[in-house]
Design a protein that fits this description.
Elements: H1 15-34, E1 38-39, E2 45-47, H2 48-55, H3 60-65, E3 67-70, E4 77-80, H4 85-94, E5 103-112, E6 124-133, H5 139-155, E7 160-166, H6 170-185, H7 193-198, H8 215-219, H9 230-245, E8 251-252, E9 264-272, E10 280-286, H10 290-293, E11 301-307, H11 308-317, E12 329-333, H12 339-350, E13 356-358, H13 365-374, E14 379-383, H14 385-390, E15 392-397, E16 402-407, H15 408-421
Parallel strand pairs: 1-5, 7-8, 12-13, 12-14
Antiparallel strand pairs: 2-4, 3-4, 5-6, 6-11, 7-9, 9-10, 10-11, 14-15, 15-16
Helix pairs in contact: 5-9
The structure holds adenosine-5'-triphosphate and magnesium ion (MG).
Adenosine-5'-triphosphate (ATP) binds next to strand 6, strand 10, strand 11 and helix 11.
Length: 422
């Protein structure tokens, strides 16, 4: 029979890697709770129109990266979510979460984009996303950066550079757009096919190009910053001042426009020096217009997403990933008579908070102790028919290579004494 493999660009996460994911997820949860963010879980599949309306028609995602399909039962067009913000805002509006109140929400999960797979770029990948809804900033814009900076410190990530920019408001972007079109019209010969297609639909997206032949052109293009009026400039300046006072280093990157249409004012990316071309680990910004755009009332919003695979690659490069966790205790047993006794003892120990793995099946003393060492157990409890008959067990201290017979009723205190000091 022919074997069936996973879909290209969609990865299995096998046990040796999954340890790092679990460790990271625990750390994320503590970090998010310490800033008062609460978890939200939205469906992986949404109405295609949700993404078209929020991300924007003329963007990489909507033009070529979405996994969309027709629901064969009713003909609806559905899409595997390419990002998490649209679903969260949809849910916030649908369940009236923003009425006279603010929300601080986070999510984690799979995202899907039909991209060319390469290191750090997959068709199924994972994001941790954070959304703060209902607060105009720039105070929260500053806390958002502060909490990211804090996360990198908790993880020991020292190789990330913060890039920031302001995308102003709709009117300012409209003026900039006119200037951009004029500029690009004078250099049509340098524009690639994709850029020409975007020239009148969404010229800002041309600044986002990854085409090396167009970099000089976009570097010299009119900058949005020059079109910002007093309010937007004040928001940007205060944000920058706050970051400076918080001692968070940043680079102003006026070419940073972000790949989705819903952003305004503060935008940012954390760029790693170790990831090659796929170097953005975390990205986001303010997206005040989106709530109204999706049918809610005028509101405020800022958020960001961390690409978990890229974060893990970065941590691995720096040698910051934890090693496989060890179990505390291994229960070795001999003879079919000991089956239930051994299950009971293992469970009694577990109830005292220890991680216990027991032997199954017939194997030699040597091979059972080898298994115990492989699991990193500090103690092996050895149970044979003799121990069963006398209500005792043999306790073997794996590091010291010593052993002693212990009565069942003093086993837990024996383990406590040893493992608390280990
Ligand atoms: P890029 O410019 O690298 O394509 P993007 O602007 O499309 O990134 P966002 O939509 O801002 O990315 O997503 C936030 C983060 O999610 C990115 O900074 C990155 O870490 C991660 N990410 C995005 N697309 C992928 C992908 N295809 N595979 C793995 N991670 C991804
Ligand atoms: Mg992309």
């Amino acid at each position: 029979m022919q074997k069936i493999s996973a879909i290209k660009g969609m990865n299995d996460i096998l046990v040796n890697e999954a340890y790092a994911w679990l460790w990271l997820e625990d750390l994320f949860k503590q970090w998010l709770a310490s800033y008062g963010y609460e978890n939200i879980r939205t469906p992986i599949v949404e109405d295609t129109r949700l993404f078209v309306r929020s991300i924007g028609e003329v963007t990489d995602i909507v033009e070529k990266e979405m996994y969309s399909f027709t629901d064969s039962l009713n003909g609806d067009s559905l899409t595997l979510r390419p990002e998490g913000t649209a679903g969260v805002i949809r849910a916030a509006i649908q369940h009236n979460l923003l009425y006279n109140t603010s929300q601080k929400l986070w999510y984690i999960g799979q995202m899907f984009r039909h991209e060319r797979p390469q290191k750090g770029r997959y068709r199924q990948f994972h994001q941790l996303g954070v959304e703060a809804l209902g607060v105009p900033g720039p105070d929260i814009d500053s806390e958002i950066i502060l909490m990211q900076y804090d996360l990198w410190q908790r993880l020991g990530l020292t190789n990330l550079e913060l890039h920031i920019n302001s995308l102003g408001n709709k009117e300012e972007r409209a003026e900039h757009r006119t200037a951009l079109i004029n500029y690009f019209e004078q250099h049509l010969e340098i524009l690639d096919e994709e850029a020409r297609g975007r020239l009148y639909k969404n010229p800002l997206r041309i600044l986002d190009t990854k085409n090396p032949l167009m970099q000089d052109l976009v570097n010299a293009a009119p900058q949005l910053l020059e079109f910002l009026q007093a309010d937007s400039l004040a928001h940007y300046t205060q944000w920058k001042n706050n970051l400076t006072l918080l001692n968070i280093p940043f680079v102003e990157n006026h070419r940073l426009v972000r790949g989705l249409d819903y952003y305004n004012l503060s935008v940012f990316e954390w760029i790693s020096s170790d990831l090659g071309a796929q170097n953005t680990v975390c990205a986001g910004g303010r997206y005040d217009p989106l709530v109204k755009q999706l049918g809610g009332s005028e509101n405020y919003a800022i958020g960001f997403a961390i690409g978990i695979e890229r974060l893990l690659i970065s941590l691995q490069t720096l040698g910051k990933l934890p090693t496989k966790p060890k179990v505390d205790i291994f229960v070795a047993n001999f003879g079919t008579q000991t089956e239930v006794y051994s299950l009971q003892i293992a469970n009694m120990i577990r109830q005292n908070g220890y991680q216990v793995v027991q032997n199954f099946g017939d194997s030699s003393f040597k091979s059972q102790l080898k298994k115990a060492s492989g699991l990193g157990a500090l103690i092996s409890i050895i149970i044979g028919e003799n121990e069963l008959a006398t209500n005792q067990v043999m306790v073997k201290f794996m590091l010291e290579q010593t052993q002693e017979v212990v009565k069942l009723d003093s086993l837990v205190s024996k383990l406590n004494n040893y493992l608390k000091n280990a």
